[in-house]
Amino acid sequence: MSLYAFLGTLEIGFIYGLVAMGVYLTFRILDFPDLTVDGSFTLGAAATAALIVSGVNPYLATLLGTLAAACAGIVTAWLNLRFNILHLLASILTMTALYTINLRVMGKPNLSLIMEPTMLTPFEDLGIPAMYLKVIFVAVCAIIGGLLLAWFLYTQYGLAMRAVGSNKRMAQANGIVVKEKVYVGLALSNGLVGLGGALFAQTSGFADSTMGIGTIVVGLAAVIIGESLFGTKSMLVVVLSCILGSIFYRIAVSMALNADFLGFQASDLNLITAVLVTLSLIFPKLRSEYKSKKAKRKKV
């Protein structure tokens, strides 16, 4: 793998680390299977790109794009909580609607940001080569996002949200407003995903209506790989493992695609993803079984 390809892998890995944190928040913390992310990732990118092209400051555009994605999460939560629509179905409905909304926001399927100012523009005069600057910038964004999320989950409000995901009835019996926590959780989750989309559009130089397809699978893969490799000892470890899991996933995919003896092509990405996720799910169980057998042998 060339240095340029490795830096590109790191860049995408850090961006999808934000997506992984959003997915972790819904799947692991709230126990809410949310497929909205496939649409909210694109919405974050589309809204940010459309605003930048219209002349809005890139930082303000990114904030508004993130908030738009957060609103998508609120819509999913509203469909589920207000009308008792199943989690998956509610998120699929929102995701389907977002495909049209994203096209409306951009006005066309693809919006170019080449020659437009981005969040990186103020730092371009520092003399750092563009390929390094992008990695450093997205790494700082992902790490700050991870630290803030870990801090939030340790606050009283975050602990209440974790309690809702663990046992809704028990949480309600202790005076926690369950619906409020679900609304906030889904907004926060999709906001993180939308921020990832906004950064992706600005570092890649475009926003596309199909760029969010498969985002949920990539986010899940990063979460599972991160948990398998680094464990779940504390919230800080778990949140940061989402970022590292995303980077490991990208490196593994890149190595598989570049290994000539494996014969993989770019079109085999979904197969590689499925194999990596399956191995990540199987590995902890095999390790547990091995330790259990080893302990039994010592007793004998």
Describe it for me?
The mean pLDDT is 88. The protein starts with a helix and ends with a helix. Helix 1 (3-29) runs parallel beside helix 5, helix 2 (37-53) crosses helix 8 and helix 3 (58-83) packs antiparallel against helix 8. Helices cover 77% and strands 2% of the residues. The chain has helices at 3-29, 37-53, 58-83, 87-106, 130-154, 156-166, 168-173, 178-204, 215-230, 235-258, 269-299, and strands at 110-112, 206-208. The chain contains 11 helices and 2 strands. The chain is mainly alpha-helical and 300 residues long. Strands 1-2 form a two-stranded antiparallel sheet.
Give the secondary structure arrangement, pairings included.
Layout: H1 3-29, H2 37-53, H3 58-83, H4 87-106, E1 110-112, H5 130-154, H6 156-166, H7 168-173, H8 178-204, E2 206-208, H9 215-230, H10 235-258, H11 269-299
Antiparallel strand pairs: 1-2
What is this structure, in a nutshell?
This protein is mainly α and 300 residues long. It has 11 helices and 2 strands. Helices cover 77% and strands 2% of the residues.
Count of DSSP helices? Answer: 11
The side-by-side strand order for the widest beta sheet comes to 1-2
Please state the average pLDDT score: 88
What order do the helices and strands follow?
HHHHEHHHHEHHH
Overall form:
globular
Q: Which class best fits the helix and strand makeup?
A: mainly alpha
Strand content: under 5%
Biggest sheet overview: 2 strands, antiparallel
Supply the key terms:
globular, mainly alpha, 300 residues, two-stranded antiparallel ribbon
